[in-house]
Specification:
alpha+beta, three-stranded antiparallel sheet, 23% strand, globular
Amino acid sequence: MGKLLLEHGKFYHIYNRGNNYENIFLTKEHYEHFLYLYEIYIDPVAETYAWCLMKNHFHLLTRIKEEWEIGYLNSANANHEDKAVKWKTYFPVKPDKNFTKKPNPH
């Protein structure tokens, strides 16, 4: 079986459930930590249209950004030989902005 690749510009319904329907979010801090990591690792490469976090599973509706929308792919460090430099280009230590609810256009 080959790699599953997400395509630029495509929409995806991403979901995950705890093993045997066990809870994956046990405290308020677990939800907050998930959103914090989501902002660091996913927000730079995907536009989030809807999300729902429940005790034992979550749902995300995202669109993978086009290559030109993902600034670091074109940065000087994107092809750097030093993996530490390249890694910091892809995943900054701290997010640049806070993860917030998108305003309702209606």
